[in-house]
Design brief:
Elements (H helix, E strand, L loop, with lengths): L2 H36 L4 E2 L2 E3 L5 E3 L2 E2 L23 H8 L7 H7 L3 E3 L6 H4 L15 E3 L1 H5 L3 H4 L6 H23 L2 H16 L1 H14 L4 H8 L23
């Protein structure tokens, strides 16, 4: 482990401990509201693929109907019929993610790092995308800011899984690789800061991401996508020359 990685791990713990303690009341209220809405377990603990391909349970507050993951639809739009009324509110303010600070304390996640995926998505990874498993997955990263409107991107989609793989996955992986290749303590704090800014001022947050990419001499096309000033179009995944035509592993 490099010195920078060690420092980031220490900071993870120093931030997560007070965050967990301070958000206990809010978390309990949210969990209670979800439980009272349908009398089912308010916790959602999906399996995700983490560091070096090791599977772990990621903690979330449930925002969908019970057993929604059995429907094999893994990408969520804002008008997804599986979303509950209270779940839509919780998801809109990102409250469903606060339990992941517990994952940070258990060592399965970091505050900043590539967002963890399910087995079905990881099975589609190219050789280049496999490098995303070299570091701990995170609660947030550059793509979390750039594609915080994922639900809107997939709105009214007839095949959210395929649209995700064609429109979002190619750039999400490239943005994540920026952190894998150039991650530093400075970038770590910048991503946390712009994640917070994104809640109240999306344009400023996107400008911040563009500056980060400019500092590491990222490709102009990636910087253009990060600015989100033009529509997303189907594009090949990182390490491939072909646009994904099916969500089934080849």
């Amino acid at each position: 482990m490099t010195q920078s990685c060690l420092v980031r791990c220490i900071i993870d713990y120093l931030i997560s401990i007070p965050v967990v303690l301070l958000t206990i009341p809010v978390g309990l209220v949210a969990l209670s509201a979800v439980f009272l809405s349908d009398r089912y377990n308010p916790m959602y603990t999906p399996r995700r693929v983490g560091l070096r391909g090791k599977s772990f349970k990621m903690l979330k507050i449930r925002t969908m109907v019970p057993k929604a993951d059995c429907m094999n639809v893994d990408s969520t739009s804002v008008n997804d019929p599986r979303l509950t009324r209270i779940g839509s509110v919780i998801r809109a303010i990102k409250l469903d993610e606060i339990l992941q600070f517990i994952n940070v304390l258990t060592g399965t996640m970091s505050i900043v790092g590539p967002r963890p995926n399910i087995d079905r998505e990881v099975a589609l990874y190219t050789q280049e995308e496999q490098k995303l498993l070299m570091i701990r997955p995170g609660i947030t990263d550059l793509s979390s800011i750039v594609f915080s409107d994922l639900g809107e991107i997939l709105k009214n989609s007839s095949d959210p899984n395929l649209d995700y793989n064609q429109l979002v996955r190619p750039w999400k992986a490239r943005l994540a690789m920026v952190y894998v290749d150039h991650g530093s303590v400075g970038m770590y704090f910048k991503i946390i800061w712009f994640t917070a800014v994104n809640i109240i001022d999306r344009k400023s947050a996107l400008r911040g991401v563009v500056r980060i990419l400019g500092c590491v001499n990222a490709e102009e096309e990636l910087i253009s996508i990060a600015a989100r000033k033009k529509p997303l179009k189907p594009y090949p995944p990182l390490g491939s020359e072909l646009v994904v035509q099916s969500r089934d592993p080849v």
